[in-house]
Design brief:
22% strand, alpha/beta, 7 helices, binds zinc ion, Collagenase (Catalytic Domain), 9-stranded mixed sheet
Length: 231
């Protein structure tokens, strides 16, 4: 009974605050006006089925080749572009993430921490701090004619106050294809997205849009992190 009452009190208090904010936004300056809407950008990551039949990646996807290939700096995902954010993240696993997936994500965390540009520590992040959530999902190939299989997806989700962003990144692996998806290279790619790295069509980048088994960040990938976290 006590619990129910305090719960109700909170609802009333929150409703009152919401009412004031709606009616009199000038009473709460720098709250309503300056918080930009959340931008979500999760991107799927693929394995080229054709590559396992022919020579691996001898013929990259034609629609991908038109995109930027940079040996200089891996680009930034649009939600984090032109924004400043903290380089410290708390990361945690959703409860249904199996041990083998946790292991490859832990390896990916180590790879990024070794750059010294970001600091990922285990823990459940507060809403106003940067965090990464690791997850799993199950998505089977729906188009049998498709030449690619989805291995994972990930990306940043930002909430920005003027030029400062709080990033709630997400990185997930597709359990429908465990032998090709639960890999350190895939985890590194997805965590890269969660931290704000976009695709780089240079084949030495871990952010190349097709899995190549890379587990070492390229110079461009490190410069990409520097562009986000060391400005
Ligand atoms: Zn990707």
């Amino acid at each position: 009974m006590m619990k129910r009452k305090s719960w109700l009190t909170w609802v009333i208090v929150l409703a009152a605050i919401f009412f004031v904010v709606k009616k009199e936004p000038q009473l709460v300056p720098n709250t309503v006006a300056t918080v930009k809407q959340t931008t979500v950008k999760l991107q799927p990551y693929f394995y080229l089925v054709r590559a396992s039949i022919n020579n691996r990646l001898k013929t990259p996807l034609t629609k991908e080749t038109a995109q930027a290939a940079s040996t200089d700096t891996t680009p930034t995902e649009s939600p984090l572009k032109n924004l400043t954010t903290s380089n410290t993240y708390q990361y945690y696993f959703e409860s249904d993430v199996p041990a083998n997936v946790r292991q490859v994500f832990e390896q990916a965390v180590t790879v990024y921490n070794q750059t010294g540009l970001v600091k990922l520590v285990p823990g459940q992040g507060k809403t106003n701090k940067n965090k990464v959530t690791f997850f799993v999902y199950d998505k089977k190939l729906t188009d049998p004619a498709s030449e690619t299989v989805e291995l994972g997806n990930g990306g940043p989700t930002t909430l920005a106050w003027n030029s400062y962003a709080v990033n709630s990144g997400r990185a997930g692996l597709n359990l429908a294809y465990p032998y090709i998806a639960i890999k350190e290279s895939v985890a590194i790619h997805e965590l890269g997205h969660a931290l704000g790295l976009a695709h780089n069509h240079d084949q030495s980048s871990v952010m190349y849009p097709l899995d190549q088994g890379l587990t070492t960040l390229s110079t461009a990938d490190i410069n990409g992190l520097r562009a986000i976290y060391a400005k």
